[in-house]
């Protein structure tokens, strides 16, 4: 068994960094599935081979496309369209502190990440209830250049959702929702103890976006992760020794359109195509 394990690692390394890492991750996850909840299914069309066509639902096949010009309907009316079309989205639970020590906590689903250097990317829209002024999260990041991101999981979703109200500046959302503050190591904003994965971040870049009327409508924040915290119950190891987070244990929650959230209840593996396909 050990020979097979190390042969797989060597093979992964020979394929190159990205493909090798993906294979190593796949092997580790596959080995841990026997004791995991039954969320793993098969891919939608396991017998498919290129360049065969796959069946399209008749309603889609025969339906007409509706063209929508965002400049005609206006940026604000694009909101329900964009949040229901770009789904599912992960949720960043962002903790900040003002220069005067006032703490703030809020979830953001305009959120993604990159890995070298490890960074999170969050879009913080302007506050409609403050006549287009900055939300507390953005104001605090501007002042201190620091924040933390805690990953949202199912077991504390209702508490997390309770922090997203349009509260006054002096409200401590973490205390209001009953969540627990955990001190950070390299930044001042606390982490959310109930979360299984935390990232301490420092502002690396920011970019102001302007709406059709020329006014600032949002800020794209790039934060460099200066410290990870991963609960041992979700921390896993690939055969090559890299840490990853177990999907079954994390129970991540995603955001969909409107007030809809999603669970990861059925997942499947789908490998990347080999480069040799371009020669066939």
Automatic annotation (TrEMBL):
The chain crosses the membrane at residues 6-28. The keyword rRNA processing does not apply. Residues 84-246 form the Flavin reductase like domain. Keywords: Flavoprotein, FMN, Membrane, Transmembrane, Transmembrane helix. GO terms for molecular function: FMN binding. SUPFAM superfamilies: FMN-binding split barrel. Its cofactor is FMN. SMART domains: Flavin_Reduct (SM00903). It holds the Pfam family Flavin_Reduct. Belongs to the flavoredoxin family. This is Flavin_Reduct domain-containing protein. It comes from Chloropicon roscoffensis.
